Amino acid sequence: MDGAKSVWLITGTTSGLGKRLVASVLARGDYVVAAERRLNRRSLELSLSEDDRGRLRWLELDMDSDLQTVQGRVDEALGVWGRIDVLVNNAGSALPSTLEEGGSAAAIEQFQTNVFGTLNVTNSILPHMRQRRFGTIIFVGSRMGWKCDIPVTFAETYAAELRPFGIRVLIAIPGEFRVEGGIANSPCVSRQDIRDYDQVRVRVLPELAAKAEVRGDPVKGMSLLVDAVKGEGKAQGKEWADYFVLGRTAYATVREKCWHLLKSLDAWQDVAEDLDFDHDE
After folding, report:
1. Would you tell me how many other CB atoms lie within 10 Å of the CB of residue 25?
2. What SUPFAM superfamilies does the record tag this protein with (predicted)?
3. Is residue 179 scored above 90 in pLDDT?
């Protein structure tokens, strides 16, 4: 093993951005532990060189497992090459359902994977990184989730808490990339079908499925993400940023949210900013 190279643990590597990220990391000569819910889909290996395959290990990791099980899997990952330098929390799910139809059952299912599962994986690896006073943790969100994404809130908190230990946190916000899978291919989750929402489904579901028109190249996106972590290529000389927005659609969404926030601040600043006591009490 080349000690100068980094070791990555990447979750959610079956398809999509995770699959491309694994290939991008291996192309730089780094080592990867690729985590999947079930170890029965390894199509990525078919396009890898013998050298790349030698620097890739697969790990079965169900994000919905309890903390003890997740800790055991992370320990397995640490035992492969003796360390993990970069953790990428990419695994996640999105359930195509309205809040009323999906109800709390759909919300609990999604929170278990996207929130509690991510927390369990991250907290399981933190003692190792704190001991080394070194590491990078990446939270992969989405352009829409950025508006109200709970994992992003956790990521911001982690960034503040872990900075004294030399551990970097990066919040990746990818826009629309042309990949397989995604919410359009997920089953509709509903405990009840409400006819009032039929028109919503007619309008929204085709938009989610219209991937052929998406221009985002996932290989370019993940290559740039690796650049940012390693400080090379297009990221050379650039300052580390907690937020890393990827793609045109993501930039448009984030700018729109920031514009609305600044507009609200400006509209109310004259009456809402100065609310101090008139005198010391």
Report:
1. 29
2. NAD(P)-binding Rossmann-fold domains
3. no
Pick from 16, 101, 111, 19: nearest CA to 63: 111
Report pLDDT for 40. Answer: 66
Select the CATH number that applies to the domain covering 7-272 from these four: 3.50.30.10, 3.30.420.10, 3.40.50.720, 3.40.50.790. 3.40.50.720
Residue 152: partners with Cβ closer than 8 Å, 6 or more residues away = 139, 141, 145, 146, 171
The answer to whether the CB of 96 falls within 8 A of the CB of 188 is yes
Among 249, 95, 88, which Cα is nearest to 178's? 249
Q: Encoding tokens for residue 106?
A: 């759909």
Average pLDDT over residues 11-34: 92
**Domain-wise residue ranges, the chain:** 7-272
- The per-residue DSSP string of 13-49 comes to -SSHHHHHHHHHHHHTT-EEEEEESSTT--GGGGGS-
- pLDDT the model gives residue 213: 66
